[in-house]
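Box 3.1 — From sequence to structure: DMT family transporter
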Amino acid sequence: MGRTSNGWRNGFIGMLIFSGSLPATRIAVLELEPLFLTGARGALAGLLALCALVLMRQQRPTRRQWHSLALVALGVVLGFPLLTALALQQMTSAHAMVFMGMLPLSTAVFGVLRGGERPQASFWCFSLLGSALVMAFALSQGLGAAWRGDLLMLLAIAVCGLGYAEGARLSRELGGWQVICWALVLSLPAMLLLAGLRWPANLGNVGAAAWLGLAYVSVFSMLIGFVFWYRGLAQGGIAAVGQLQLLQPFFGLALAAGLLHEAVSPGMVGVTLAVIGCVAGARHFAPAR
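Predicted structure (token representation):
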């Protein structure tokens, strides 16, 4: 029971850190091109990860583990950052939060496909209900965006769910922080090349806010958040702890309200409480670990 509780605690910390990712990305892409932003955040995080692995003298993964790490890198180092950066050029961070309500389902599905988990039917009911509440609330706000942005966010959710589930499965063998660090190191050459090829010609005109956004997504979203998140998923279960992502849109909207001056309606508070109930229900019916 202690391992499960630690999993939910670590997962919650990771979710809180990830809640700032879309607002920070939105701020950054207002002045930085998406491909450069993706390469730069991956390169900065990759260099930090390489230093950590060398200092801690970690053993290199096996050939089979490298294959899994490639899926992690595809999902959370390249796929999700690039797709969300492109989408956020066409929509607000508040609209993008609509799709984050679908991430727990994506993670749970890949947890079944890749992690071999078998949650109870009651778990799926609470998961679907929570996702529906998030989607209904966000759509009721009358947010609009181009269909291309919506499609990009749907693709981002799919690849992110794969990266989350695969990384959590591998964390049981390598450890949470080791998984994200090795995935970042695996991606480092490509991220350095991408950042170099898309290097802005007018870096001097980029404001402090954009640099702070880049710093956040590089250090916290790409590295520190995953240390807690993968550890939580491995300890508490991919599908179960993944339900904490139902709360991410609301924490993200709160941050967007403070950073981007977007309004937070009273309905947000009520739906948040209902979603917390769904998370509690999913936790109750999740398989014990």
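Summary of the box: The mean pLDDT is 85.
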